[in-house]
Amino acid sequence: MKYVWSGTGMVMVSLPILTGTAVSTTTSSFNNKTIERTESSVSERTQYLTTARNLLISAADAIERLMSSYKEIVALAGYTYRVAGMLDVFEETAQGIYSKATVIENEEINGIIEFRDGKPIAKGRIIYIDDPGNMSISLRAVPVVTPNCDIVVPSLTLCIEPGVHLLITGPNGCGKSSLFRILSGLWPIYAGELHIPRPLENKPCMFYIPQRPYMSIGSLCDQIIYPDTRDDMKRKGMTENELMNILKMVCLEHIAQR
């Protein structure tokens, strides 16, 4: 918008100025003699061209500032809307009247999700496996449903045995992250059964890595022992040599040397 608009304007302004053939004739008298001089208007045309160029550049900069301002205002409006919505949710939650807005019920949803008083009912079951020899994860006819009751997968049956490497691929919105939210208990199960190992000695059997890398505040040692603290490390008898072995397992021992 900036360069095409100003360039087109420069061409339109410069063509009549550069291709013009007009001349100016001046008459003067000296010692009772009349003298006529014909001068070219190149300097005047150059002046007009320079003035027009400056005006076009100023107008192009103004248009660019307007477009940039509109983009920034739209981004600011989006942030403001999210912050305002968050504050409204906090206020309603404090009053105990908050309820998540759901989509309109239809036959497809009613076949998978059961509603009561306009709210979905989580009828699925989470079964914890107490057998240390059985550390498998299995889903039996579990639908992947978002908190807004959008059905991503109507029924998912899956069994993951220890030692099995599984890679889930697909486009955005197909339910890759949603499956892990269900496994971690962040999202409810509206149907089917989920079998997962029970935590042993208050230690979880599964560890979830976020999609974005996060670093805790502290030293390299704090990153390795996270979420434990230095006191937890000493209480468990963890030494720096064991931490170095952990770094060697993941081929990052050069970081400690550096």
Please give a structural write-up:
By secondary structure, the chain is α+β, with helices and mostly antiparallel strands. The protein folds into three domains: 1-8 and 42-97, no CATH class; 101-210, no CATH class; 215-257, no CATH class. 43% of the residues lie in helices and 20% in strands. The chain has eight helices and eight strands. The chain has a four-stranded mixed beta sheet with strand order 5-8-6-7. It has a two-stranded antiparallel ribbon with strand order 1-2. A hairpin with a 2-residue loop joins β3 (114-116) and β4 (119-121). α1 (2-18) runs antiparallel to α2 (42-95). Residues 156-196 form the ABC transporter domain.
Uncertain stretches: none
Q: Report the helical percentage.
A: 40-55%
Largest sheet: spatial strand order = 5-8-6-7
Shape: elongated
How large is the share of residues in beta strands?
A: 15-25%
Number of helices: 8
What's the pLDDT, averaged over the residues? 79
| Number of spatially distinct domains | 3
User: What's the alpha carbon Rg, rounded to whole Å?
Assistant: 36 Å
* Class of secondary structure makeup: alpha+beta
Counted beta strands: 8
N- and C-termini, Cα separation: 50 Å
Largest sheet: 4 strands, mixed
Order of helices and strands: HEEHHEEEEEHEHHHH
Family: Belongs to the ABC transporter superfamily. ABCD family. Peroxisomal fatty acyl CoA transporter (TC 3.A.1.203) subfamily.
Keywords: Membrane, Signal, Transmembrane, Transmembrane helix, Transport
GO cellular component, one term: peroxisomal membrane
Protein name: ABC transporter domain-containing protein
